[in-house]
Write a structure and sequence with these properties.
Blueprint: E1 15-24, E2 27-37, H1 42-47, E3 52-56, H2 59-64, H3 66-73, E4 77-79, E5 82-90, E6 93-102, H4 119-126
Parallel strand pairs: 1-3
Antiparallel strand pairs: 1-2, 3-6, 4-5, 5-6
């Protein structure tokens, strides 16, 4: 996209918000890690890097506590009053996307809240069921 703040050939979607799942007593918690400048992906270029959270899940938890872990992860999560929903897993990580929902906060235009979309609209953008190539998918 050109030069931006001293970076030649800059393009968006390269910042990744990272977290890891840890076991605490008999439950789980999500611990935030430092953000990283990594590869870009279609979702972040479309919706913005900050709207995605990559949750790393240790192999031991995935292998030994899969059912309990899945129950924990099949819900919405709140980060700074913004609601994140899991939508994809790959290579030991779960990806969450920010929705247009709030928890204990008021949306503010200065930080781009007006551009957030409902989860179903995000999924429909990614894989629209009304397109001919998707007609045979189960709804």
């Amino acid at each position: 996209m050109g030069e931006w703040e001293g970076h030649s050939d800059w393009y968006g979607g390269q910042i990744q918000q990272l977290a890891r799942l840890v076991k605490v007593n008999n439950s789980y918690k999500i611990v935030l890690e430092p953000m990283e400048n990594r590869r870009s992906h279609r979702f972040a270029r479309f919706y913005g890097s900050r709207r995605f959270l990559q949750l790393r899940i240790p192999d031991e938890i995935r292998q030994k506590e899969n059912a309990k872990m899945r129950t924990f992860l099949l819900k919405k999560f709140v980060l700074c009053g913004r609601v994140f929903v899991p939508f994809h897993s790959k290579e030991g990580a779960l990806y969450l996307v920010e929705t247009d929902e709030n928890w204990g906060r008021t949306p503010q235009d200065w930080c781009g809240d007006q551009y957030r979309i409902p989860f179903h609209e995000f999924i429909n953008w990614h894989n629209p069921l009304d397109k001919e190539k998707n007609f045979n998918q189960v709804c």
